[in-house]
Each structure stands twice: as structure tokens, then as C-alpha cells.
Amino acid sequence: MQKRIMAPSLQACLRRLTMYRIMLLLSGALCALVPAASRAGDITRTPILGSDFPIAAAVTVPAGSDTIYVSGALASPIDKSAPKDSRAAYGDTEAQTLSALTNIKATLARLGLGMGDIVKMTIFMAGDPDKGGKMDFPGMMKSYRKFFGTPDQPNLPARSAFQVAALAAPWALIEIEVIAAKTH
């Protein structure tokens, strides 16, 4: 039987190829571990320094968490005897905020989530004709405080609230959209 003799350069090439395969396998194993490590941890809510205002300055959602984007919610009618497309059917900003947040709560519940899972909220407010065309921020806050920063539900979202020229529904004074997140 004849023994094969390899040239030194061919032996070196095969050794490098074997090392390359080992490094590739190790790097793949390492990559598989990194996402699991980055998922560890909870959602972190950073309060506004020196303030008891019921919103978070920031919310950090760890990698690997599920994020749920909820479309803008409007109020449901509260006065069935009022004309269907009238502001009277939906109430003032406080009533519309309560209704919109209740609708969001129901949407989240259908997904197995709660109001404490909201990490970001955007509130669009139209000017109230009864308030000289200005948004009713205090009215919105009265209903908002029923859902956030309570003993039963202390989690606060990062939040923006501002006045817009108009909303899609002519009777609407408020529209609220949220992003919720859940860790595994």
C-alpha cells in the first residue's frame, strides 16, 4: 500500500479549513445564546425626576419582547338618545377619554393583555368648541388617572398628548393610540 505524502502547504491549508469550520460552529452556538441572554429582564419604566406626573420619562422594552400596536381608539356613544353624529352623543373630553381608554382596555384584554402592558401612548385632542377651541387637557387627565398610576395599576407609559386641527370623526375630541409590550 502506498502512503500519501502531502505537501506542507496542502497540510497547512487543511488545518486552516478545519479551524475555520470549528470557529464557524462556535460562532453559531454563541449567536444562539445571545438572544436568550438579551431577553432576560423586565420592562423598565423610568420616572420623571422630581415629578409625580403620571407618565414615564422613558420605557425600556428588552429585546425579544412582543410588541403590540393598537390603532387609534375613539369614544363610543354614551347618550343613545342624542343624534348619532353629534358631540352630545359622545360627551365632553373627559367622557370621551374614559370611553376611548375603556375600548383600548377591551382590545388589550382580547389579546391577553392589560392596561399595565402599555409602554407608549399618543393622545390626539381636537379643540373643544365649549372651551374656546382649546383642548381640554384637565378633562383628559381626569379619566386618564383612573387607568394609570393607581394602586391597582401603577405602571405608567411614556406618553405624548397634543392638540390637532381636527380628528377624522367630526364629533371626536380625542383619539388615543397605544403600544403595548409583553416579555416572555
Compile the SSE list and pairings:
Elements: H1 8-39, E1 44-47, E2 56-60, E3 66-73, H2 87-90, H3 93-110, E4 118-126, H4 137-144, E5 158-164, E6 174-182
Radius of gyration: 28 Å
Query: SSE order in H/E notation?
Result: HEEEHHEHEE
The total of helices stands at 4
Work out the strand percent. 15-25%
What is the number of independent domains? Answer: 2
What is the fold-level CATH name, i.e. the topology of the largest domain? 60s Ribosomal Protein L30, Chain: A
CATH class of the largest domain: Alpha Beta
Q: Structural class of the helix and strand makeup? A: alpha+beta
Question: Residue-averaged pLDDT, rounded?
Answer: 87
Architecture of the largest domain, CATH level 2?
2-Layer Sandwich
What is the topology, as strand order, of the major beta sheet?
Answer: 3-6-4-5
Termini, distance in Å? Answer: 62 Å
Low-pLDDT stretches are 29-40
Shape category: elongated
Q: How many strands in all?
A: 6
